Amino acid sequence: MKAEIRIYRQGDEGRMALRPDMAAQFAQMDARVHDGVKWSLVEDGRVLAIGGAAFDETDASHDLWLLAGGLRPRHWWQIYQRTRNLMLELKGAGPQARIWVEAIPCKGAREFIERLGFRKSAEEGIYYA
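and the corresponding structure tokens:
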């Protein structure tokens, strides 16, 4: 069965096996997903990834986030497409708003973020669009 992206359902994060680096990051967030727009990547009833955008009222920006387990290239392609569409939606709703993302210290994460069109900020590991 093909993986599909659907609207996030409460508790999806508990139904996935996170990569160790993402599990550590998630634990630092008290194992809570952000408020805002959320989606889940599901295949054969298994949640493979969840992500979304949280609005930051302090600077009227959006923070993109992703939690993922072991993914195949086709899964990353689906996440890429969903993230590009989400970025277009956010920019369409407020063209002046900044969209931020923080990369885990992983070459693949940085490359993925840069392919999405994000630029490096002055702060290490932080990117904006």
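(Above: one complete record from the training split.) The CA atoms of residues 102 and 124 lie 9 Å apart.
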